[in-house]
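Fold this complex.
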Amino acid sequence: MNFPSKLIEDAVSEISRLPGIGKKTALRLALHLLKQKESVSEDLANSIISLRKDIKYCNICHNISDSETCSICTGNRRDRRLICVVEDIPDVLAIENTSQYNGLYHVLSGVISPIQGIGPDELNIEPLLDRIRNPRSEEKVKEVILALPATMEGDTTSFYITRKLKEFHIKVSTIARGIPIGGELEYTDEVTLGRSILTRVNYSAD
Amino acid sequence: MYLKNIRLQQFKNYQKAEVQFSSEINCFVGINGSGKTNLLDAIHYLCLTKSAINGVDMLNILHNKDFFTVFGDFDLEGKEIEVRCIFESGKKKQLLQNRKAIEKMSDHVGLLPVVMIAPDDTGLIKDGSEERRRFFDNMLCQMDKQYLDQLVRYQHFLKQRNALIKQFADKGRWDSAFIEPYDREIISLSKKIATARKSFLEEYYPILKEFYNIISDNQEQIGVAYETHCSGAEFEKEFKASAQKDFLLKRTNMGIHKDDFVFEIEGYPIRKFGSQGQQKSFVIALKLAQFQIFLTHKKTKPILLLDDIFDKLDDNRIGKLMNLVADHRFGQLFISDARPERSKEILAGIGAESRFFLVKDGEIGNWDQ
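Structure:
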């Protein structure tokens, strides 16, 4: 792409580094900013800079946070005996949006994959063990819920963590897998359907 | 099932070509290098989404062009299926069934069974164990989706485990807790895959024996020994015990990726002790048994591709093979041969409809008999 201005070219090249944005979209965004008031661009730039500079990661659960400890970990209505282990930050938001969970979280920042050079040391696994070993409140952790992706890497990571948790003699559970609510059986993939038959649950008529 | 016609564009040495086939015997004749085998390969593409000869799709495009297409209409037990295979350089290969794109190639593989016999291809006997595992895995995967799933998972975990071992070797320290999840998967999948291979062989072996005895004149005893570490009760222990060896050699030394199928004749490995003729007969029997297995499981006669076999086999074996054709053991047949008169003579006495095509410089015409 040829640009009439070096400034435009620089902007396009920076914007198109973002995921899901190509050169054309980047150009459209850049030209859009030029048409707006100068303050729009300044606000955008400042918010990005302060996002990058001031963002913190919770020193307990490693979720994104404005302070040293995140609002979930400090929340006084939370059940401190439950820890839900997730792969990454969006998973916390997804589970929070269900309004079905009132415990704490632990963000691993990835799953184990030796091919990509990611081992337990690259993830927040040791901090998780430490949380259970040295609880910050009087209430001890009694259950760890593994909510990792249903992939081969997710399964391997779950197994690894389960082994590491063995010494604490606490309950380790994993989220259920099966047919989505509102889903038709005939359109469900064979592996999911097969597993949902194998791990069927008692029907509760209450 | 049979293939009614094929339409090629920029595939190998064909600029553009279209042929209507007989549902019985089709014979491609023409001098060497005219493109006979390429036609067989195009049929292979339609059935299995890949070449039988060259695994790299790029190399199957006509020189200096940037895409190829292979289209064909099949009749699968009365059901019409149009298959389109399109490959453009730098893009993902596309496969369409009745104009509907197939997302996963594995969903297409197995629908239209095909068996190719090229008797100089004794690699199955002479080469390493990988060729033989691939031959059996290919059949198993086409018949058993669960096996395919297990094999894919196995290969993935093996790759992860090997990457892990290399890291351990770099650090000079083995971490049993870290490797345990992979050991567990590999052990449990190995057991399942070994059991599946074993029970498949029980079905396959009697068929193989029957065909070998038909093809070869003498009634030698043949055998297939399935060699695996993974079916014994001690496998788990042995797998764990080989950790030190794994660490030293920087790879996984136990598991179904080390299995072999040893072909034997009178109790000795045919690879070392079989004559040329015995090896050729064995390869043909392997493929014919594959045909029979597909027929039983897919409930349709696979397409049989015979590449240049009249040249490589003696009259005796050709005669036996043609007796099977005359018995209507097979369905649609595609044959390539450099010498038209010979093919005509061999096929004359069969009593099946045969159509001859003259292939010349990437063009296909009817052969004036």
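Chain A has a mean pLDDT of 92.
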